[in-house]
Model the fold of this input.
Amino acid sequence: MSINPFFPPRPIPDTPPNSDRCRCPKCPTSPGQPSFFCARGEPSKTISKKDCLCHQCAIFQEFKLNIYFDEAYFCETGKIA
Ligand code: SF4
Done:
């Protein structure tokens, strides 16, 4: 999905309350890795995609990331804004 440059996604603030809601630690795609990829970046070098949990995440819903991303896998693509 392309991102409209006039209506880009808001950056996700890297705060403890936000990072505490990240689902990545329980994700089968990136078990045991650092998380909160949508805010922090640091994508992994190689992932094997398995049922990304981002769509079930409160951050994904609060920041309306569904408008921009059909798939999430921020562990592969990194920070969103
Ligand atoms: S949208 Fe994905 S990367 Fe961002 S906080 Fe939620 S689970 Fe983590």
